Amino acid sequence: MNPRRASMIVAGAALCVVLSFACTRARGGVFIADLRQQAYAARDVAGGKDVNLAFRDRYGWLTRHPVLSGGKGLDPATRTRVAAAVSDVPGIGGVSWAGESDAQASSAHCQDDVERILETRTIRFGEASTRLDPSSGRLLDEVARSLRPCVGSLIAVTGHTDAGGIPKVNVALSLARAEAVRSALVARGIPADGLRASGLGAAKPVEGLDPRDPANRRIEFSVIFSAPVKPTPIDTPGPQ
């Protein structure tokens, strides 16, 4: 190939990359500006007018993962409600509170909220099956809403069985059910990279219950604080 022609092709390709990057930055700025406006409106409705939302990470990149700060005078329930309201805005990729202590407190509240939801109700499956019972859909909706403010923490989904049957089969069944719940939460907007599924079979029955009691067949959630992952720069949705 003619060297001059080759250099022109390379220069053209480089120009395309530069223009594409500039276009992405421009579109990203408009997208984030609109997202910010919706997020602040949701924050106000939830009662968090003193809460600030940062849509740039520490490197200065625009992000769909706003960091919440301020609102020190708000009670824990209001802070959780504000975080959930912002997280529910279409296009938001997850939220976190600035400062380790805030994130740890938020994780504790998520844990308490989920445990309260599951105190009197159970995520159900077909008998000896990993298929979620349709009646559990609304319950999983509630669990997902309670977990959204803790995006950025690790959420452990653990399956348990009673002591009936073959131990190895029970472990495999409990894991498969935990994976089914994990998938259901991902479908409800909880990021997959923060969810960990495991199955313990009948190894840890409910305290005070006979190991063979069917009530040991359950799914448990544990919210574990961890440092939030650095979001990707201008991670705006691509073409549909």
How would you sum up this structure in a few lines?
Helices cover 44% and strands 15% of the residues. The chain has 240 residues and is α/β, with parallel strands linked by helices.
Assigned CATH superfamily of the largest domain? OmpA-like domain
Strand fraction: 15-25%
- The CATH topology of the largest domain comes to 60s Ribosomal Protein L30, Chain: A
**Order of strands in the sheet with most strands:** 1-2-3
- Shape type: elongated
* Helix-strand sequence: HEEHEHHEHEE
Specify the CATH architecture of the largest domain: 2-Layer Sandwich
Structural class: alpha/beta
- Number-wise, the strands total 6
Would you write up a description of this structure?
This protein has two domains: 3-98; 106-224, 60s Ribosomal Protein L30, Chain: A. A three-stranded mixed β-sheet has the order 1-2-3. The protein has a three-stranded mixed β-sheet with strand order 5-4-6. The chain has 240 residues and is of the alpha/beta class. Helix content is 44%, strand content 15%. The longest helix has 43 residues, at 3-45. The protein is built from five helices and six strands, in the order αββαβααβαββ. It has helices at residues 3-45, 76-87, 100-117, 137-147, 167-187, and strands spanning 51-56, 62-70, 96-97, 154-160, 195-199, 218-224.
